Amino acid sequence: MELARALIADAAIVQGGKLYVHGGGWDGIQANALPVTHPSLALAYVMRIEYSEAMTDIPIVIELLDEDEKSLGIKVEGNVRVGHPPIAQPGDPLFVPQAVTFNMLQFAKFGTYRFRISSGRTTIGEAAFRVLQPLSVGAKPAS
Predict the structure, then answer these.
(1) Which pLDDT tens digit goes with each residue over 76-110?
(2) Would the N or C end of the chain have less CB density within 10 A of its end CB?
(3) Is the pTM of this model over 0.85?
(4) CATH of the domain at 18
């Protein structure tokens, strides 16, 4: 099993085996003051599960970390179990979309944050974003 792709979005859901994303692919939240509360943030991702892994419980842990590797106390744990679709041939991988929504997340400092997605003791992927101060009028971005 591996993470095929992951992104941050305003909203995401899975329906009928398809991932629907609204306002996806961004990597920054601008904040005028701290702490800042973001009303809704979704982690959308697609797992590639090998044919031989189907019909088993695959543990998944999602944790939100800051740039110092400290947990923000946001942790989601569960299992993914998929079957073999009728058209699957032995050896065909399965692509399984997932979406997790986090409401009213609070950030106490500017910097980089990331969702770490793990299975067992193995990190299978990450999705990062930043909490940024807005540029002052007339200021040039740092290079």
Answers:
(1) 999 999 999 888 899 999 999 999 999 999 999 99
(2) C
(3) yes
(4) 2.60.40.2550
